[in-house]
Amino acid sequence: MSGERVEGATHTVEVAAPAGVVFAVLADATKLPLYFSPNVHAERLDFDGGSERLRMWSLLDGQLKSWTSWRHLDAVRRRIEFRQEPPASPLTSMNGTLQVTERGPGRTELHLRYHYGVDAARPADRAWAQRATHDTSLTQLAELKSYAERWTRLDDLVLSFEEAVRVHGPAELVYDFLYRAGDWPDLVPHVTRTDVHEDTPGVQRMTMETLTEYGCHTTDSVRICFPHAGRIVHKQTAPHVLLEAHTGEWSVLPDERGVTVLAQHSVVLREDSTAVLGHHGDLAHTRRHVREELGRDSRALLAHAKRHAESAVRML
């Protein structure tokens, strides 16, 4: 008869940033996919000011896993307790704490402790769990340190915006165009190639090549599709050369007069873009350039989604 084998680990990192900044980065669930490369998407299901329940999608050891996570946020003690319920397979349990401790002016220690369970009769699951939890923890701690230590510049490095279009056509046809990204190279001039794989229904892995004034850029993305809600969220796992991170969402919002379609983007800019933009590669120019390029590309896709839906209506 098999049972649960429980293992765990602890990791500590020193961060040259105020403790309040470190805690704030960890506590903002909506920004987790933007700041931490393994995290693809986080949906807040419940929040009462101190405790929250999140639906998480993350890449663990190259595999996309999903689970519900409970977190208790203690801002006074700067402590976050977490528990997966239920955990991502093949884990049978997962819980832990993040403790942020001030060690001096602008000096902070972040201590991560976690425990996880696996089926004792499945050694392959144990090996995967050890590898995935260890690698993911070290990656997230390193990225937390990187972002927190740039806290005085984060407002300039992070950019969020949206584009919108009104469509007088069925919401289902708009969503259909956005979902079928494999067809975009035949329809959208700036998209030269897309490779889309959907091994799990509603979860797409996509490689896309786009044409810009500086040549062709290739990006890799994970797209999570919610057809009943008219939403497609995405995270670039290999982002544009000017970006450290890129998350976004397509939203199809019907009302009594038609449909509003939104393209939302959040990005973290690379601080040195001279290799791409030449002597104009300062942060302010990079910020304007990324806003213009992503906005232009989004508007082009939105225009084709509008045409796709409205042309079908005229044909009927």
TrEMBL record:
Source species: Streptomyces longwoodensis
InterPro entries registered for this protein in UniProt: Polyketide_cyclase/dehydratase, START-like_dom_sf
Protein's UniProt name: Cyclase
Gene3D superfamilies reported in the protein's UniProt record: 3.30.530.20
